[in-house]
Amino acid sequence: MVNRRLRDGVGIGTLIAIAIAGGLAAAEAPSGLVARASAASDDSAVIVGVAPEAPVQGDTLSVIVTAPRSLQIAVSFDGTTVGVYALPAGARRALIGTDPTVATGAHRLIVTVTQRGKGTVRIPRGVRIGSGRFGLRTVTMGPKTAGLITAENAATERRILGTVLGRRTPEALWSGPFVAPSDGTMDSPYGDQSFYNGRRAWWHQGMDYAASAGAPVVAANAGTVVLAQSLPLGGTTVVIDHGQGVLTEYLHLSAVTVRVGTRVDKGMLVGRIGATGLVTGPSLHWGLYVNGTWVNPLFWMEPRPGVTQ
Ligand SMILES: [Zn+2]
User: Fold this and answer.
1) Tens-digit pLDDT profile for residues 273-299
2) Is 255 buried (19+), middle (13-18) or exposed (0-12) by CB count in 10 A?
3) How far is the CA of 106 from the centre of ligand 1 (A)?
4) Considering the entire predicted model, what is its pTM?
5) Ligand 1 centre and the CA of 238: distance in Å?
6) What is the 251 CA–ligand 1 centroid distance (Å)?
7) How far apart are CA 182 and CA 219, in angstroms?
8) What is the fold, at CATH topology level, of the domain defined by 136-300?
9) 202 CA from centroid of ligand 1 (Å)
10) How does 84-116 read in b/e, with b if 16+ C-beta sit within 10 Å?
């Protein structure tokens, strides 16, 4: 049974399978395709697994497509094309980040399967995203720190970060759940709406750890250092590329112990806690970026089928 085998082998909760024996139908795949898959042999089936079962804002959706290599696979989410990458076992995967700005409720995921010269099948999937139940955080800062918030600084930050956040390294370098980059106390969660000195600012695009200045900051997973420099708001910053559009950033450091190009393993020292940039005391801001979206790092710290498992 194709379904049973894949359910066990991939560990993905929600599956759709289509039979492609005899070529692809140039039509939208109807619902209820799982039943047809049992009639197909293993090497003529396309199986789509989507996880998690009940995502909330901040989660990362994984779409794993098991299909013969000769088929082209494309994935879109709410009409936007998402990068599809090969996995070592032969399947292909798209990772879709969500954040507090993604509307709760129904979204449209489409997997398009193309067989050269034979046609295309569209496999539509409804995905419901629940509320991340984010809170508020109020930050009080002195005039010197608050004065860092300027359009010019924000533009500089965007320009420099943008050059590395746009990387899409084909190979996935991470393995297993991500680890906390600091053994300090996590004192400001992801997703909260920030108010700086009473003014509404942006939502919190990562999570903060309070620790003493000089305490170690480690790589949350394996990857390549792609940025190690000072930024106007992030302060002294390290960014690690974990591959397939997944990157982590480490802000406000007092020191950096790696260089651009350094290959790091999970848990390796990359810098030291500091208070540089837009921050009120020694603190680490840790952000996790997935193909264009700052997602909830907590999600990646647990075993997740198709992502960290
Ligand atoms: Zn932060």
Assistant:
1) 999 999 989 999 999 999 999 999 999
2) middle
3) 29
4) 0.88
5) 14
6) 8
7) 9
8) Glucose Permease (Domain IIA) (2.70.70)
9) 11
10) bbeeeeebbbbbbbbbbebeeeebebbbebebe
Q: What are phi and psi of 153, to 5 degrees?
A: -65, -40
Ligand 1 centroid vs 141 CA: distance in angstroms? Answer: 14
The residue extents of the domains of the chain are 15-129, 136-300
Ligand 1: centre distance to CA 199 (Å): 17
Distance 252 CA to ligand 1 centre (A): 9
Predicted pLDDT of residue 141: 86
CA of 173 relative to ligand 1 center, distance in Å: 25
CATH class of 15-129: mainly beta
Distance (Å) from CA 304 to ligand 1 centroid: 24
Tens of pLDDT, residue by residue over 50-76, are 999 999 999 999 999 999 999 999 999
Sign of CA dihedral 253, 256, 257, 258: positive
Give the pLDDT score at 14: 57
Residues 20, 215: Cα–Cα separation, whole Å: 56
Handedness of CA 235, 102, 247, 59 (dihedral sign): positive
Instruction: List the shell of residues around ion ligand 1, using CB closer than 5 Å.
Output: 208, 285
Q: Give the Cα separation of 127 and 189 in Å (integer).
A: 25
> CA dist 266 to 104, 108, 284, Å?
33, 35, 17
Dist. CA 13–CA 10, nearest whole Å: 9
Separation of CA 208 and ligand 1 centre (Å): 5
What is residue 277's DSSP assignment?
Answer: S
Residue numbers in the chain where pLDDT is lower than 50: 1-13, 21-42
